[in-house]
Amino acid sequence: MARIAFQQLAHSYHPAPRGPIDYALRPMDMAFDDAGAYALLGPSGCGKTTLLSIISGLLRPSDGTVLFDGADVTPWAPERRNVAQVFQFPVVYDTMTVRENLAFPLRNRGVPAREASARVDYVASLLGLTAALGRRARNLGADDKQKISLGRGLVRSDVAAILFDEPLTVIDPHLKWELRSRLKELHRQVPVTMIYVTHDQTEALTFADRVVVMAGGEVVQVGTPEALFERPAHTFVGHFIGSPGMNLLPCEVVSGEAVLPGGHRILLPHPPARETLAGRRIELGIRPEFTRIARDGDLPVLLRRVEDLGRRRIARVELAGLALTATLPDGAAPSSDAARITFDPAHLHLYADGRLVEAAP
């Protein structure tokens, strides 16, 4: 196990980068604590896999330092870093049995046969592979093959970290939930540093204790799933986390109120200092879960449609030409296109140039 840290880490695939746009990863200082469960979450092309490749040693960064437990491993080859990696597509030896596949890393390291067998039996029991230990890998489905890939990382007691690069991509949808749950349970029983790359917020939020949200090669927020939902530090996080994402409304701040298009005013419970907003693009953010259709609502809106999501219903509305999403209370049935909404003041957030503005002290 290891604590993995970055000091001013950055990477560009250009031989002579001229500016931030040429960097796949922009300068960052960050750490993954020993035995933590982390997810790297963001859209395709945001730098997740590049960062994973730098951790594993498959890619040397253009700038900065990678530390394992305080030791500079930046120039180290992958085999020296003692990192296990699970890829999108299962990497198994089809002609070997499940037992032989799991024992392969131990045999290569000269682990005594009795110790290796005991370790394989233990890991197979964790993964639900005990009954398949004698079967050839080629006869197994994609989910079991991915379990073998995972097992080859877990079977090594000396592994520094296990890295997962979109490991459930090829798994049938009805099996994904089972594997996600099993992976979470595995981390509780085998406390090793795990870093999970995905573009799927459900996978990230159900697996990780802390989620690293990335956009455009930059880390925009690191936090617990609850913190990312309750208090997004960036408008990208508000939009990317949640379904539907956060409502964002352009506004001005005047005398402690957010002035929305159409002249509508919303009292800010914790207005920021005026000087922090000068010359910046200001937006008011609130999640649909805290935006409700109500007869005594504060703002008149035009109801466009209602969507039934099973456990809840949401309303698509317009406020002065701006699209908003709100939740509908149980039993509510708007009878016309005219409606009113109300915002929960405890969940209002103000953003300047995309970043959360803190209240004045």
TrEMBL record:
Stored SUPFAM superfamilies: MOP-like (SSF50331), P-loop containing nucleoside triphosphate hydrolases (SSF52540)
Recorded superkingdom: Bacteria
Transport found in the keyword field: yes
UniProt cross-references to PROSITE patterns, sorted A to Z: ABC_TRANSPORTER_2
Stretches assigned to the ABC transporter domain: 4-241
Any one Gene Ontology molecular-function term assigned to this protein's record: ATP binding
Keyword tags: ATP-binding, Cell membrane, Membrane, Nucleotide-binding, Transport
Family to which the UniProt record says this protein belongs: Belongs to the ABC transporter superfamily.
Protein name per Swiss-Prot or TrEMBL: ABC transporter ATP-binding protein
Biological source species: Plastoroseomonas hellenica
